[in-house]
Structure formats: C-alpha cells, structure tokens
Recover the amino acids of this structure.
C-alpha cells in the first residue's frame, strides 16, 4: 500500500504544483529594464538601484536600471506604456504620478488603468518642515505670522503639494507665497539658505530632524510621523486634504498575472529581508518598508485616485 | 572653525578612503588619486597633440568614466579626479609643441610659441620646457589656493546676502557678460546665448506636458545634455577641421628644431630668480581673469605677456634676449597666466554653478550626469551635526586638485618632455579617430541612436557657428544655465507673491541688472 501511495502522492503533487506556483515558476524572458523616474544619485534613485541589486542577487534576474525623468513621472509613464508587457520593463515612480499628475495632465494614454501596479516600497513620511532654530519652528508661530500679514514662503516639490498648500492656507486664513522647487532636496536647501520659510518634504528630512537641525511642524499625511509623533496633522489644523503616497513600481497595462505576482513578490522579498542593502536604506531613510501588492494595491491606488480627483476639483473651484 | 577643519579632513578622507580600484597585497588602492594620475598623463599627451585640447578629452572620457563608475555618489570623486587631471595636464602639455615645433598644442599656448620656439631654435628646448613647466605649475597652484579660500566664502556670502530675485539677476548678469566678452562681436555673442536658451527650453518647464517638442517623444525631457554639448563643441570642431583639411590639403605638420646646442640645455643658475616676478604677475593676472566667467585664458596670457614685456624692456641687460627673441621671461609670463585661469575658473562653478570655460562646462556636466553633487551656493552649507555630503565632495575635489598639482610638479615635467612625438600625428588620422571616439562615448552613456542623431544635428549647428564666426561657448553656457535661470526666476516670482517687478525690488538686483545691460552696451562700442 505504501508503495502505491507514494507515486500517487507525487503525481497528485505534480498536478497541483502548476496551479499554485505559477508565479514562482515565472522568469523574465530577458533582461528587465528598470526605468527610474527620479534624478540620479538621490534617495529614491538609490532605493530603486538597491532593489534592482537585491533582486539580481536573490533571483539571478538581470536588471538594467536607467533614468527616465521629467514631467512628474509622466515621461517615464509614456515610455513604459510603449514597452512590452511581458515583465521585461518596469518603472519606479511615486503613486501621485499615476493619480494626481495623470489626471491633471489629462492624457488618456497615461491614466492609472493603462498600467499595472506591481508593489509599493515605502510610504511618504511627509512633513511640513522648518528650521529648528528659525522663527517658524511651530505651527502656532507660523499661523501668528501669517495672520499678522507677514509673507510666508512655502516650498513645494509638486503640483499636488502646491494645491494642498494653497487650500490649506485658504482654510487657515493665510495667503502663503507658494514656491515650486526641485524635489525635497530643493525645499531643504531653500530652508537652509533662508530662501524659504516652511515646506513639504516627503521623507528626506528624517535625518536632519533626528539631529535637531530641521523640525516637522506638522504631519502632511493622515497619520502622525514616526520622527515627530507630537507634531499635529495638517488635517487637524484645518486642511481638508493630506498628502499620503508611496514610492512604487509599475509595469505596462495587461501584464501577465504570473509576471505581476512574481515581480511583486520579488520586490517584497528584497525589501523585507533585513540582510539586503535596500532594506537597510528604506529603514534608515524612508521610515521602513511598506509593501502592498496585488488586489490590496489595486484598492489603495483607487482610493488615492479618488482623493486626487477630489483635490483637483477643490483646487480648480477655489 | 573646527567645523571647517572637520569638513576639510572628511574631504581628504573621502579621496583616500573612497572606493578602491583594485587591491594590492590586501590593501585597497583608492580610485580617486589613481584617476588623477591617469587624467594628468592623458591631459599632458592631449595638450601636446595639436588639434586636440583638454575639453575634447574631457568630453570623450566623461561618458566612459560614468559607465565605469556608475551613477552613485561614490563615482563623483574618481570621475572628477580624471577630469581635473586632464584639465591640469593639458595646460602644461600645450607648451610642448609650441616650444618644439612652433605649433601651439592648445589655443592658449599661442603666446608660448613667441619665445619658446626661438629658444628651441637656439638649442635650448629642454630649458624652455622646464621654464614652461615651472611657470605653468606655479600659476596653477596659486590659482587653486585662491579657489580653496574664495569659493566657500563667496558661496556663504551669496547664500547669506542674496535672495531669490538677486540670484536671478546674478544669473542674467553672468549670461549677458559671457555674451558680451566672448567672440568677435557682442551681437554674435547674444545670438549664441539666445539660441542656447531656446534649445534648453525644449521639453523642460513645469507643465505636465513637455513643451516645444514638436511631438517627438525622445525630446520629452529635453535634448540629451551630453549630445547637445558634445555635438556643438566637439563635432562642430571636427566638421570644421575636416573642411580645412579638404580646403588646404594635408599640411606638413611638424617642423623640427635643430639639434645643435649652444651652452647648457637645462635650467641655468639664476633662471628661477629671473622668471619669478613674471610668474608672480602672470599668476595674479590669470587668477583675476579666470574668476570672471567667459573671459578665458587667451586674454590672460596676452595681458600678462604685454605687462611682462614692458617690465622686461625697462630692466633688460644687453646680454638677455628680448621678448619674442627667445626670452625665458616671455614663456614664464604666458604659461603662468594661462595656467592660473583654470583654478580660478572653478570659483564661479563651485560657488554659483556658473561655468566660465569649456573645461568647467564638462565638470558641471559630470556632476549633473552622476547626480548627488549640484554645484552652487547650497554646496557650502556648513551643516552640523548632520554632515553635508556635497560639502565633503567639494573638499574632496580640492584635495584632488592639490594631488594634481603635486604630480604636475614632480612627474609632469618628465612626462611632458617625452611627448614631442605627438605633434606629428596627421590631422586626417586624428579627426576621424576623435569623431569615432566621441560618438561611441555618447552611445555608451545614452544608449540610444536618437541621441546620436541629436549629436549630429548639434554638430552641424556648431559647424555653422564656426563658419559664421559665432562663438560656440556662450551657446553651451547658456544651455547649461537656462534651467537654473528659469527655476530661480520662477521661485523668485512665487516667493515675492507674484510680483512681476521682482528683478527690481532691491538695490542689489537693480545693480546686477544695470551691470548686465551695461556690459553689453559698453563692450559693443569697442
């Protein structure tokens, strides 16, 4: 009986395997081009390259990173849309590229439904930041100065942040001078050089906040910040919107589900492995890995898309 | 003060404890100092080859270096090491064919031929080369020291006293000044700058749809920087060179100096004392001229030569050669001044992000391509306790320059004397080789054929510029400064609450704007 059972079990297992491990069997049909929508050398770029390195080491897949910057991630989106949907082309952007920016640009080829979200890597630890020893180092001081009619320079790194800042100021009764700059690094340089008074930074401020040079006077997201748990949320201070978002990987639309699952799992595996460089970077500089894949990611993207549509309506109306 | 010293120390460490190139007996050999050596030797060889110049070698090696070292912040110092090495080597090497064959190896060595070649004819080529090397390296070292001291102070001053509108006005002043001083006429300079700005505005901007692309997808993020710059500067030069070759036929390149030696052919006793005042004057003139963006080493060499000649004529003993007849003082005046330009030229680059010559253009291009180091006032934020990595890089660059000078003092002289043979490479071989290398280098970095077509397009533009006597460097500098200019102007406009007259809101910015207009008006009257 034992002799009969064993081959049967093997046979049964052989039938079951293809159904359950289709994703695990998936391998890319060639080298994977990883488009990076961020400037070379910055934090997000390093994150993408370390994830590529981790996947190469763990899975042996060849990954070719390349910079495709510009137009808030939409340059990358349009190049990715033209790439083959077989898992050999992926791109790293922020969630607002395919939500807020795609809606605002109003190009039907670059909307969320034309792409396949693969996995988020980390969520924004977005704070409203000021110099720790400056005159705007608490919200109360900022508000008092604003109400007294002092011009306050508010640095933002994207149109979405500019809209939120504008509506927030309107709600709080302050007419901010909203200054669009290049990325979170641009906001921090502006603060340090005295060109800006306050500004939104999506996580790059972490180290300077921990060392006491900068301060988060408020959280720009719908939870408190890990570095500054006592800072109020902007939604508590009168803002109707917050700036939640993620760094994430996307692929062209209609990607083979097995490829989607395998790529998402690979990214998750690398980010959650404490031994990888990617994990160490994300823990140190991005408030820890926050990986969402599959249907949960679809639901999250839809939620962000709905928020973006509301924000655009409100900003256009106001 | 301890803060500053700490940063200096971190910069030195970054060079010597940076990523290793290979290991010898278990000791990792840091890449950056070795790259300085490689760059310096390359630079001397390139400078000694008439028809090649430092910027050309920097242009070709940059994409190759980036593909070797990658886009990580660790790549900055090794890449800069090689480029600075070329820059320093080429200024020394340019004197070799000027002295031996009456052919300037680089354009700024033109004045060196006036006294260097007569000395070689008199059988003292070795002495002339030694004097050229000593003067050149002294000028360069002096200029670097001024850079090390001035760049941080200038940057801190700018950051502390200039607000966004003033920074915008300063950029406008720089571009106007460059248009006014470069080239045959102010009108041509302005044309060049204008076209550079227009080219840079393609694909950029803040709208979510790229502007001015004419529907070409490849232009969504603008013309590839490397393609545009190398096209105009290098391909344009090659196309012009090919045309000259066709027009004149392959010319006989090198004229040999006679071998007969009268008296000793090495440094004579008293030579150092004779040239010292000329070297000192040349170094100061070169440093002052170099700190002004766009003025260039040829003017520095000419000025220094003229002043040197005046002094020499007053004090010359009857036995000493007059300028133009083989005077060591002539070589010293020229070489000290044209070499002193290179260090001072980095003052506006590092403290303001404004390039003043072609070499500086390629340093900015390197920083821009690799990322993680953005030349400008923000580099010199002496943050504490958080270490500002860009400032460490800046002091690392200073360390590399000091290493380059030490090498130039020591092995530079020996190496340059063995480079005379390069003056005989014929143009019909040199030009195609440089063309092939340039295109390969661009393809290595951009990995797209579209980038090569863009390069060709800009090459034709560069050729047309040269044919119609329009200077190309203002085009390139405007192309590089266009984005910072637009960005700063937008920031200034927004920060002043949308004031359309933001450029005229303070005395400083009014002064800068007046100087911008003034430089164009005054210089067009000459």
């Amino acid at each position: 009986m034992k002799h009969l059972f064993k081959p049967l079990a093997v046979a049964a297992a052989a039938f079951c395997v293809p159904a359950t491990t289709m994703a695990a069997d998936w391998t890319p049909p060639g080298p994977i081009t990883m488009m990076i929508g961020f400037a070379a050398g910055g934090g997000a770029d390093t994150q993408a390259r370390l994830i590529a390195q981790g996947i190469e080491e763990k899975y042996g897949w060849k990954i070719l990173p390349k910079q495709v910057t510009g137009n808030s991630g939409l340059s990358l989106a349009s190049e990715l849309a033209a790439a083959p949907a077989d898992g050999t082309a992926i791109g790293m952007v922020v969630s607002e590229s395919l939500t807020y920016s795609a809606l605002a640009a109003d190009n039907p080829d670059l909307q969320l439904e034309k792409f396949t979200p693969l996995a988020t890597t980390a969520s924004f630890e977005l704070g409203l930041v000021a110099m720790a020893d400056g005159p705007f180092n608490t919200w109360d001081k900022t508000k008092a100065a604003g109400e007294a009619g002092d011009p306050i320079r508010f640095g933002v790194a994207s149109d979405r942040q500019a809209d939120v800042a504008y509506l927030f100021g309107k709600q709080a009764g302050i007419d901010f001078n909203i200054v669009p700059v290049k990325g979170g690094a641009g906001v921090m340089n502006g603060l340090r050089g005295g060109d800006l008074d306050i500004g939104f930074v999506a996580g790059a401020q972490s180290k300077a906040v921990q060392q006491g040079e900068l301060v988060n006077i408020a959280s720009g997201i719908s939870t408190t910040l890990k570095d500054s748990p006592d800072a109020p949320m902007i939604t508590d201070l009168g803002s109707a919107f917050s700036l939640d978002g993620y760094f994430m990987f996307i692929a062209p639309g209609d990607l083979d589900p097995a490829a989607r699952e395998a790529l998402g799992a690979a990214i998750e595996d690398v980010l959650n492995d404490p031994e990888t460089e990617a994990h160490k970077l994300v823990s140190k500089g991005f408030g820890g890995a926050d990986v969402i894949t599959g249907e949960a990611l679809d639901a999250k993207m839809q939620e962000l898309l709905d928020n973006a549509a509301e924000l655009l309506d409100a900003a256009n109306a106001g | 003060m301890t803060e500053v010293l700490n940063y200096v120390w971190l910069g030195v460490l970054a060079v010597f404890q940076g990523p290793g190139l290979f290991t010898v007996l278990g000791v990792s050999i840091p890449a950056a100092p070795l790259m300085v050596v490689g760059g310096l030797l390359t630079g001397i060889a390139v400078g000694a080859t008439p028809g090649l110049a430092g910027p050309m070698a920097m242009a070709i090696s940059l994409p190759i270096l980036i593909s070797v070292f990658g886009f990580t912040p660790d790549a900055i110092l090794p890449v800069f090491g090689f480029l600075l090495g070329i820059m320093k080597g080429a200024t020394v090497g340019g004197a070799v064919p000027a002295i031996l064959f009456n052919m300037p190896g680089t354009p700024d060595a033109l004045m060196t031929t006036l006294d260097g070649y007569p000395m070689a004819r008199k059988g003292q080529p070795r002495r002339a080369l030694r004097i050229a090397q000593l003067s050149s390296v002294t000028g360069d070292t002096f200029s670097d020291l001024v850079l090390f001291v001035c760049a941080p102070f200038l940057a801190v001053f700018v950051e502390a006293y200039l607000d966004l509108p003033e920074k915008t006005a300063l950029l406008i002043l720089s571009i106007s000044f460059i248009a006014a001083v470069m080239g045959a006429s102010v009108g041509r300079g302005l044309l060049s700058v204008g076209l550079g700005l227009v080219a840079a505005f393609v694909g950029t901007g803040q709208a979510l749809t790229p502007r001015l692309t004419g529907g070409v997808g490849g232009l969504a993020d603008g013309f590839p920087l490397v393609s545009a710059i190398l096209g105009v500067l290098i391909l344009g030069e090659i196309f012009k060179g090919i045309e000259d070759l066709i027009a004149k036929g392959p010319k006989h390149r090198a004229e040999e100096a006679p071998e007969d030696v009268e008296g000793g052919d090495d440094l004579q006793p008293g030579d150092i004392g004779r040239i010292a005042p000329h070297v000192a004057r040349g170094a100061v003139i070169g440093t002052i001229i170099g700190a002004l963006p766009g003025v260039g080493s040829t003017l520095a060499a000419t000025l220094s030569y003229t002043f040197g000649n005046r002094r020499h004529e007053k004090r010359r003993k009857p036995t000493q050669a007059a300028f133009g007849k083989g005077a060591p003082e002539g070589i010293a005046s020229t070489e000290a001044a044209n070499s002193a330009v290179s260090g001072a030229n980095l003052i506006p680059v590092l403290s303001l992000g404004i390039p003043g010559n072609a070499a500086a253009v390629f340093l900015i291009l390197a920083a821009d391509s690799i990322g993680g180091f953005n030349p400008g006032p923000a580099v010199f934020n002496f943050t504490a306790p958080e270490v500002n990595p860009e400032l460490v890089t800046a002091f690392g660059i200073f360390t590399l320059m000091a290493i380059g000078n030490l090498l130039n003092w020591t092995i530079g002289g020996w190496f340059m004397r063995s480079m005379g043979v390069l003056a005989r490479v014929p143009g019909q071989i040199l030009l195609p080789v440089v063309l092939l290398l340039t295109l390969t280098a661009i393809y290595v970095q951009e990995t797209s054929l579209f980038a090569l077509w863009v390069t060709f397009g800009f090459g034709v533009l560069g050729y047309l510029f040269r044919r119609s006597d329009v200077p190309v460097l203002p085009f390139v500098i405007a192309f590089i400064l266009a984005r910072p200019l637009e960005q700063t102007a937008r920031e200034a406009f927004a920060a002043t609450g949308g004031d359309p007259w933001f450029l005229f809101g303070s005395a400083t910015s009014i002064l800068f704007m007046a100087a911008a207009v003034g430089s164009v008006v005054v210089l067009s009257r000459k």
Observations:
- Chain A has two domains: 31-123+245-317, 127-219.
- Strands of chain A lie at 32-36, 63-67, 89-94, 115-123, 127-131, 153-156, 177-180, 198-201, 214-219, 246-252.
